[in-house]
């Protein structure tokens, strides 16, 4: 199963800039902090690359997988309905999905895949609720022209796009900017608040006025910098792959590239049995590896370095390792590292309230992926601060009906300390589907999950913060402590897997890493080019 060759020597030709000045130390024992998808992926690849090195995963909860969780509820009739309470789909179209596909084929999960073609209504029909109704977004270039004239949410957008190439390019002293300010400067206010604000609800559950264009849409920022215009930048194709992306393409197995070719025309992936299948397979695989130990219900409380060993303090005691990879949320790691520039503590997160509902009547919503609600919708039309609603597919094993997942809160609840109870959340969801979709029927099943601090926010200055964190980690830990996870370089499952793989590889090959080696380098990510 493992076509990735193990590493049995410290001599590698990897380029790590300032890291090259540090003495290399071959990992002899590695701790992974956090058993979410990033921690599991890092452990998975380390156990392949360094098969004789002991690896210990620390997870504070009894379950692995973090926010990835599939649940099954039973109707009074005895039939089961499956819900996802967190991320549910994986995107095979991005360059970084190569690592996800590498994991999938190594775990022999290809036969469990469920694929949704890009042309299927469930993938291509996306809606924005604005100001009091669903606006179906165009799914093709041809559909765009009539949509400019008929959709309230696209009012003024055509003129804004035509004018964009003639707008002044940004001044050289702007180092970063909020997404809203960037779009206002390039396209005017309407697109920024209505369209882009909604899209950021559907990715970061975040505030378009606070998120950083440079970290959230790096390719748009780059296009303006290089071509003076986003629209002109899009007209230029065929840019060469950047170094981190080339390393990605070169680093994954041929089978993953083959699988990627088979995924042409696929919009999203999931698994029969839900997204948790990925977690369970990784867990099973790691449990079978003699050198891997998984410590559940063991909370990490501190990390130290005495210039010889890394020390991990947990709720159960203290252990020594040669190297550590932290996949804990940046703020938690920051609270016990207290680095001089304190960059870790400045990466905030938002809380999202997820309500899953099942109604026994089918087709209560149009065919599609779901809808998003921008901040510009009047309060009276979105009193409970819904961010968006997913129209979940009914599985072949399930009775006919309508399945919805509503997501509330996010940045709207930044200053809240008290969140709705289960009963209040259920009521909020009922009132919202009534107001937005005209659904009056009582749901047969309702499930509420408060995902506390689940999505990191790449706010203004995020990239500078990452530079500072990299410097602090090198100064303090000599490349023995590296970071991975959603806090840094991409919040989706695919990004978490890509960067955990990259960090594990850097640590295994060079014996020193921060996980932030390529900060500042262009990468395709989910916001950029899609090529293999
Ligand atoms: C309403 C809230 C949310 C919805 N999804 C997420 C939230 C917070 C989380 C999320 N969605 C995307 C990502 C990026 C990584 C990935 O897994 O691909 C994350 C963390 C993907 C995404 N979802 C939407 C867009 C435009 C994107 C970017 C990639 C793409 O174009 O596919 C739109 C969207 N998200 C939600 C809905 C209801 C929706 C559109 C109708 C839910």
TrEMBL record:
ATP-binding listed as a keyword: no
Primary location group: mitochondrion
CC cofactor: FAD
GO CC, alphabetical: mitochondrial inner membrane
Known catalytic reactions: protoporphyrinogen IX + 3 O2 = protoporphyrin IX + 3 H2O2
Keyword field: FAD, Flavoprotein, Heme biosynthesis, Membrane, Oxidoreductase, Porphyrin biosynthesis, Transmembrane, Transmembrane helix
Membrane-spanning parts: 30-50, 141-162
Cofactor: how and how many bound: Binds 1 FAD per subunit.
Pathway assigned to this chain's UniProt record: Porphyrin-containing compound metabolism; protoporphyrin-IX biosynthesis; protoporphyrin-IX from protoporphyrinogen-IX: step 1/1
Pfam family, one: Amino_oxidase
Enzyme class: oxidoreductase
Transmembrane listed as a keyword: yes
Protein EC: 1.3.3.4
Top-level division of the source organism's lineage: Eukaryota
Gene Ontology terms, MF aspect: oxygen-dependent protoporphyrinogen oxidase activity
Chain ranges of the Amine oxidase domain: 37-507
Localization per record: Mitochondrion inner membrane
GO BP terms in the entry: protoporphyrinogen IX biosynthetic process
Family stated for the protein in its record: Belongs to the protoporphyrinogen/coproporphyrinogen oxidase family. Protoporphyrinogen oxidase subfamily.
Function: Catalyzes the 6-electron oxidation of protoporphyrinogen-IX to form protoporphyrin-IX.
NCBIfam families associated with the record: proto_IX_ox
Name assigned to this protein: Protoporphyrinogen oxidase
Species for this entry: Pyronema omphalodes (strain CBS 100304)
């Amino acid at each position: 199963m493992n076509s990735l060759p193990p590493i049995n020597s410290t001599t590698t030709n990897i380029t790590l800039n300032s890291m090259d000045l540090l003495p290399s130390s071959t990992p002899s024992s590695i701790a992974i902090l956090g058993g979410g998808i990033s921690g599991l992926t890092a452990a998975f690849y380390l156990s392949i690359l360094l098969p004789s090195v002991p690896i210990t995963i620390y997870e504070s909860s009894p379950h692995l997988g973090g926010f990835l969780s599939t649940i099954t509820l039973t109707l009074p009739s005895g039939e089961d309905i499956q819900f996802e309470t967190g991320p549910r789909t994986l995107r095979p179209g991005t360059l970084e999905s190569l690592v996800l596909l590498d994991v999938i084929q190594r775990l022999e999960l290809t036969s469990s895949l469920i694929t949704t073609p890009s042309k299927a209504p469930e993938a291509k029909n996306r809606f924005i609720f604005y100001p009091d109704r669903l606006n179906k977004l165009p799914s093709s270039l041809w559909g765009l022209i009539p949509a400019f004239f008929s959709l309230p949410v696209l009012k003024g957008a055509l003129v804004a796009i035509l004018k964009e190439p003639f707008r002044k390019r940004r001044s050289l002293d702007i180092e970063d900017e909020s997404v809203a300010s960037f779009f206002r400067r390039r396209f005017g206010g309407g697109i920024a608040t209505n369209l882009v604000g909604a899209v950021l609800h559907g990715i970061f559950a975040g505030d378009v006025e606070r998120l950083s264009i440079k970290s959230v849409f790096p390719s748009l920022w780059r296009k303006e910098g290089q071509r003076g215009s986003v629209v002109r930048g899009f007209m230029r194709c065929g840019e060469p792959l950047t170094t981190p992306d080339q390393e990605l393409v070169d680093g994954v197995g041929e089978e993953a590239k083959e699988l990627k070719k088979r995924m042409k025309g696929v919009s999203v992936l999931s698994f029969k049995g839900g997204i948790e299948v990925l977690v369970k397979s990784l867990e099973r695989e790691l449990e079978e590896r003699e050198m891997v130990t998984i410590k559940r219900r063991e909370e990490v409380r501190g990390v130290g370095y005495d210039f010889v060993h890394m020390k991990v303090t947990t709720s159960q005691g203290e252990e020594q390792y040669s190297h550590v990879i932290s996949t804990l949320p940046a703020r938690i790691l920051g609270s016990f590292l207290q680095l001089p520039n304190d960059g870790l503590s400045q990466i905030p997160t938002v809380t999202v309230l997820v309500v899953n509902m099942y109604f026994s009547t089918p087709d209560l919503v149009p065919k599609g992926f779901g809808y998003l609600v921008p901040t510009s919708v009047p309060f009276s039309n979105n009193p409970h601060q819904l961010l968006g609603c997913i129209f979940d597919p009914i599985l072949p094993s399930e009775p006919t009906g309508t399945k919805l997942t509503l997501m509330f809160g996010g940045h709207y609840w930044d200053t809240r300390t008290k969140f709705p109870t289960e009963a209040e959340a259920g009521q909020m969801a009922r009132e919202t589907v009534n107001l937005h979709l005209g659904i009056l029927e009582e749901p047969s099943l309702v499930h509420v999950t408060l995902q506390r601090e689940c999505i990191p926010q790449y706010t203004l200055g995020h990239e500078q913060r990452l530079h500072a964190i990299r410097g602090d980690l090198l100064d303090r830990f000599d490349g023995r402590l590296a970071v991975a996870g959603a806090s840094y370089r991409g919040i989706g499952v695919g990004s978490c897997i890509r960067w955990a793989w990259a960090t594990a590889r850097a640590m295994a090959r060079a014996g020193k890493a921060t996980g932030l080696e390529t900060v500042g380098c262009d990468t395709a990510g989910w916001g950029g080019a899609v090529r293999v």
